[in-house]
Amino acid sequence: xxxxxxxxxxRFLYLKGRTPKETGDRIKEVYGDDALSSDVxxxxxxxFRCSWASVETASILGQSxxxxxxxxxxxxxAAILEDHRITIRQLAQEVKxxxxxxxxxxxxxxxxxxxxx
Length: 117
Hints:
By secondary structure, this protein is an all-alpha fold. It is built from six helices and no strands. α1 crosses α3. It is rod-shaped, with a radius of gyration of 23 Å.
């Protein structure tokens, strides 16, 4: 069952005035074991009720997207090695990620502070 197809079925039954439980039962009746869980159906009812989502562009359930990947880590590490006096805020602006993400990357890198004395 494709994502857009699934959302279309849920939206259709939502617009027809069906409850999430009725929609979940209909989907299970048609798709059997491949059917969505009732929590997913409730999530999409909430999305459509609040007009936050369309069938094609709506976000999916699951963990949010992370900007911390190999390329980003490499950019942060290269910037630190290039200018060891760079601040976390400057790193965040240069790499275009949040300050919190920069802090996490720096914490995970095998680097430590060195005293200039």
